[in-house]
Each structure stands twice: as structure tokens, then as C-alpha cells.
Amino acid sequence: MKTSMQVLDPRIWTVFRRHAPQTLTYWSVFFSFGLCIAFLGPTVLDLRCQTQSTLQQITWVFFSQQLFLLIGSSLGGLLEKTLTSSLLALFSSTLIISLVFAIIPLCHHVLLLSIAMALAGKAMGVIDTIGNLQLVKLYQKDSAIFLQVLHFFTGLGALVSPLVADPFLAEDSCVLGANWTMNSSSLSDLEHLRNSLVGHGAALHNTSQYPLNVEGVVVTRVSYAFWIMALINLPVPAAVLALMYHERRLSCSSSTTRLLHKEPRSSPTKDSSQGHEGVFDCCSPKVRGQPASFFILHALGGGIVFITDGIIGSYAGFVYTYAVSPPLLMGHKMAGCLDSIFWASITAGRLSFIYLSYRYPAPTLLTINLVGVILVQCLLLIFYTSCVFLFIGTCVLGLCISSVFPSMLALTEDMLDYKGCATTVLVTCASAGEMLLQLLVGSVIHSRGSYSFLLCSTVTSVICFCLFLLLLYTCRIHRNHHLGKLLCCRFDDLVGSRLWLLNSD
């Protein structure tokens, strides 16, 4: 009984109860983030019908979403100066996501749809940066476990979104031309295209072989899916608004500002000008005297999440293409399950690492994760002709890579004494990696064949692990520098006090 009661430190529960309203709100905001990031792939063929555009035209909405997600991640640091501005940014971003869901059925031109997805992407980027920053500021040394829960809610939202959309997806062509006849071959083509588009549309190259009508009668029910997701997401901005009222951040609330609980670890959340000052706060005058190791840690941490989030994006985008290509030649239905298995294993991994991040330090977990990613991808290269091992490897890879970003974020902020700049840098680098590495892998696959997909992922995984070892070494140098500086300061204080005593005598 005593052992079961000590699953979590009572101090963790005490801190959580103190910050429960803020923490639960940030978790719900990341559910909104996950809900928005996963719906586009399954519904894009129906959106093509709605906008009566070609497949090449509709894939621009993927690019607009990813590009503005990167821009929003960078701008999130600028909006995070105070608690009031942070909550206002979260409220407006989550409300924008609901509005985008509601207006997507009204976008009957691909340009309007791209603009809507750009707005959604920018809102998602702001949420990503501010949500991570606020949790790090609230919990600091204890932030690792709460960051794992935060990113679990992202995976949960990413699982819910396709489930909501699936009943409303067209089972055949949703643009019926005058000479259109449905047969089993065209149904198979549509299924193949839908599965290819799930991975952010990057797998489309030779699409002219699929005769999809542009002009004709549009018959699609996907609008209902977006309106349902808008309703599901609507409680999230309401929760942020309630938190603003709870913290006395609304003009209609009491005129006296309600301070957060006064303790050293939560003081950065007060509404003051001492918060995060911008995207590159690490270059501001207050930290300009930092050693080179300070900036190297930012660069190495950003490089690691750039690669790992890029691997997630590229694997989700191209595992279907790899599975249906030689030598595997897997069936469309079976290959279509791989992407769902991958995201489900990522969600399950984040759920399991909630407890593991409490029991073990971040460097240990990151070492196990990155070594596991390398081993799995090497085995996938060795057993490249096995369909069974592809399913097993996909599941294990999702489990291993699932918690790299939250663990890396907690570790880097700990190394840098929670100055806040690391969160913005890491979130921006992760967004850039998910967009750019996916494009790079896609171009390599197009020119060198599907086998290069696994080879690229394995090489980047090895590079990522080397960067992690260099990060640990740089961290040791950085801490030794700070220890030496602290000892020098204490020695100077001691000498100064002795001289003062001698002069007074």
C-alpha cells in the first residue's frame, strides 16, 4: 500500500494542485493543436472536390499550413512577454482554430482554403511556443513530467480528428462529371491517393495517371466533419477565457490584480516585463555576457529536435509510399494502417513516458530513445523485405521517438537555468525540421527510389545521436564555467568583507 501511494512524490501533487487551473488549460490547448494538425490529410481529397481543384493545386494547402506554423512558432516568443499577453494569444489562437474549422466548408476556391490553413497554421505555431513556455515557467525543475502530458494531449487530438472525419469522407469521386462511371479500379485509385495524402501531401509526384474530375456536380458531406470539430474545439477558448477571469486578467473582473502564488519557482509567471522579450531573447543585453557554450547549447538542442521532428514528419509522410512500392508491394488497405499505427504508438509512448520522466532523469531517457531509434531503423534496413517487421518497427519507432521533444525541452531549459529562450528556439527548430526534412526526403525518394527513405532516416538518426553526445559534453563545460564563476564571486565577496572589517577596525 505504501509503495502504491509513492508512485508520485507528494510534492509533485502539491505543486500540481497549486497550478491546476493553468496546467489543465494548457493541456486542453494542446488537444486543440493536435486536432488541427491531423485533419487535413484524410479530408484533402474531399476538399479538392469542394474547391474543384487539381491534386497539384490542393497540395499547396499543406505547404501554407506548415510554413505559417513555422512563422507562428517564431512569433509566439514575441507574444509571451507577460501572462496577460500569453493568455490573450492562446485565447485568440484557439478561437481562430474553431473559426477556421467552421469556415473551411465555405471555401470554394483553393486560394481561400490556403489562406484559411495559413491562419490555422499560425495559430498552431503560437500555441506550440506559448504552451511549452508557460509550463516550463510554472514548474521549472519539475516541468519534464508535465511536458510529457502536454504532448500526450497533442497525440490525443491527432487521433480524434481523423476518427471524426472518417464517417463523412466520400467513398467514390465527389465530383461527378457527365461521363463518370464508377468501378472497382477507380475506388482503389481513390483509396491509394487518400492514403498517400495523409502524410502532408509530400508523397504525390506522378498523379496524372489518376483521372479525377475537376468540373461537375460536387457531392461531399465533409462539411459536417469540420463543423463537428469546430464544436469539439469550442470549449478550449472558453477554458482559456475562464483562466483569464480566474487570474483577474479581464477588465470585467476585479480591478485588483490577482498575483500568482508567491514562490521562487512560479515568480516568472507574474505579469511583468521580466518575461520573454522576443524570438531571440538569448541575444538580449541581460545574457550577452554568457559564454559561447550558452549559445552552442541552443544550437545543439535545436538541431536535435529539428532532426527528430523531421523524422516523425517524413516517416508519417512516406511510410505508405515505401510500403506499396517494391520490394514490399503491400496492399493499399494494409499499408494505409501504418500511418495510424505510427501515430497511435507515439501517443501511447507519450502516455507511458509521463511516469518514466518522473522516475528517470531526462539524459537517461533521451539516450534510450535515440539509441532505440537508431537500432529500429537499422533493423528496418536489414529486414527491408519483411512486411511483418515493417509493422513492428513502425510501432517501436513511434514509442522510441515519442518523448524526445518534451524531454529535450526540459533538459535544455534545465541546462540554461530556465532563461526562456531555449523553448522558443526548440519549438521553431522542430517546426522547421518537420517541414524542411520532409521536403528533402521526398525529393530524395523521387530521384533515388523508396529504399532511400529508410536510409535517409537512419543517417539523420545517427547525426542526431552525435549531436546529443556533443550537447552533454557542452553542458558539462557550461556548468563548470558557471561553477567557477560562482566560486570567484564568493571569493571576492569574502575578500571584500575582510577588507571592510580591517578598515573599520
UniProtKB/TrEMBL annotation:
InterPro entries: MFS_trans_sf. One of its GO terms (cellular component) is membrane. Keywords: Membrane, Transmembrane, Transmembrane helix. Signal peptide: none annotated. The keyword Transcription does not apply. Its main location: membrane. It is found in: Membrane. The chain crosses the membrane at residues 24-45, 57-79, 86-104, 145-165, 224-245, 294-320, 340-358, 365-384, 390-411, 423-445, 451-473. It is a multi-pass membrane protein. It comes from the Eukaryota. Residues 256-277 are annotated as: Disordered. Belongs to the major facilitator superfamily. This is Transcript variant X1. It comes from Nothobranchius furzeri.
